[in-house]
Amino acid sequence: MAWECSDCGRKEQGESKITVCHHCGRPVCNLHRVMVPDDAFNSSPGQIVTNFAIHCPGCWSAFHPQAANVESGAPGAGGWTTA
Ligand SMILES: [Zn+2]
Ligand SMILES: [Zn+2]
Ligand SMILES: [Zn+2]
Fold it and tell me: What is the reported pLDDT for 44?
């Protein structure tokens, strides 16, 4: 079964791996995935572990607006925009 990016439609092939967003499960290619440290993975409160989770652009701005703003360098700009 060949995955394809839900954003650009590119199929998984060779080094272009498709991964799934950890919030909505949408497949995204390596160009459209966003790695964000997500503390939802932290199991014990006293232990700070930074785990990077894969996000689609939509969930990146929806669930991690602060990270999205930092990345884009435009605070309050509304995050990701798609054409
Ligand atoms: Zn893509
Ligand atoms: Zn998502
Ligand atoms: Zn997340």
Answer: 63
Query: 24 CA to middle of ligand 3, Å?
Result: 10
Rg for the chain, CA atoms, rounded: 14
Q: Where are the domains of the chain?
A: 19-72
Containing 63, the helix (H) or strand (E) segment is helix 57-63
Q: Look up tokens 């006293």; give the residue.
A: 46
pLDDT of residue 40: 64
In 3-state terms the chain splits into helix, strand, coil percentages (rounded to 5) of: 20, 20, 60
pLDDT digits (tens, 9 = 90+) for 27-41: 999 999 999 888 765
The pTM for the full model equals 0.69
| Residue 40 DSSP one-character state | G
- Which ligand is nearest the CA of 8, by number? 1
